[in-house]
TrEMBL record:
Belongs to the uracil-DNA glycosylase (UDG) superfamily. Type 5 (UDGb) family. This is Type-5 uracil-DNA glycosylase. The lineage of its organism: Bacteria, Bacillati, Actinomycetota, Actinomycetes, Kitasatosporales. The keyword Iron-sulfur applies. The keyword DNA repair applies. InterPro entries: UDG_Type-4/5, UdgB-like, Uracil-DNA_glycosylase-like, Uracil-DNA_glycosylase-like_sf. Pfam families: UDG. It comes from the Bacteria. Keywords: 4Fe-4S, DNA damage, DNA repair, Hydrolase, Iron, Iron-sulfur, Metal-binding. CDD domains: UDG-F5_TTUDGB_like. Residues 67-243 form the Uracil-DNA glycosylase-like domain.
Length: 254
């Protein structure tokens, strides 16, 4: 009897079939970095890696899906949007190597959650304490805008990542409305009971959600994009306050 071939990285259903069975984050990240399920994102991430920004023309870009970053027993998750073209897509680590990451890690360091106040490269010695960076979409999208179909195709990676973190996870900071909306169906599918009406995103928003491993405190923070930080919509003090609050709720450092 013949058996169907195992899904390959270019299959649209590769995330749905390969993420749930990952026994730990190391296996999950290895499978994730092979993923080629979204043709538009694959083409764009590789194009950015070939046509490099002048400042990085001598560097070899990662140009693959970017996995999460942080310990496997984290009690706090920080959920973003997607890797940046010349940040995570270049370095291979989320929130690394661009102005957004400089701002984020300055806030995380001030809150006692990061070893260094910057994140420049994968070998810069940066460490996160009790905290893991998570992304709803793992490939850089054109114009920083993944389509709903791309978000949904990528969802199993975040779902399994949060499932593996579940026994220790106690709080999550969501950076921006996109991540907030992407997280809700993941929490529902994982057995969390969302309050009615459903929590609405806002800077400083807070909702406590009951789940299979205990309650999860969900906090909102404006995304540390240059647009938000250069206009003062999000200041370093504002972001640091959210992370300190989250750290206290999670029982993390800070």
């Amino acid at each position: 009897m013949s058996h169907p071939a195992a899904p390959g990285p270019a299959d649209r259903d590769y995330p749905a079939l390969r993420a749930p069975g990952a026994r730990d984050l190391e296996v999950l990240d290895a499978r994730l970095t092979d993923c080629r399920a979204c043709p538009r994102l694959v083409a764009w991430r590789e194009e950015v890696g070939r046509v490099r920004r002048a400042a990085y023309r001598d560097e070899t870009y990662w140009a693959r899906p970017v996995p999460g970053f942080g310990p496997a027993d984290a009690s706090l998750a920080v959920i973003g949007l997607a890797p940046a073209a010349h940040g995570g897509n270049r370095t291979g680590r989320l929130f690394t190597g661009d102005p957004t990451s400089d701002f984020l890690f300055a806030a995380l360091h001030a809150a006692g959650l990061a070893a260094l106040p910057y994140s420049h490269s994968r070998d810069d010695g940066q460490r996160l304490y009790g905290t893991r960076l998570v992304s709803p979409v793992h490939c850089v999208p054109p114009d920083n805008r993944p389509t709903p179909a791309e978000r949904d195709t990528c969802r199993p990676w975040m779902a399994r990542e949060l499932d593996l973190l579940g026994p220790t996870l106690r709080a999550a900071v969501v950076l921006g409305g996109f991540g907030w909306q992407a997280l809700m169906p993941v929490l529902t599918a994982a057995g969390y009971v969302l309050p009615r009406p459903r929590p609405v995103f806002g800077h400083g928003a807070h909702a406590r959600i009951e789940g299979p491993d205990g309650p999860l405190d969900l906090l909102g923070c404006y995304h540390p994009s240059p647009r938000n930080t250069s206009t003062g919509r999000l200041t370093l003090e504002m972001a640091t306050d959210v992370f300190r609050r989250a750290a206290r709720l999670a029982g993390s450092a800070g």
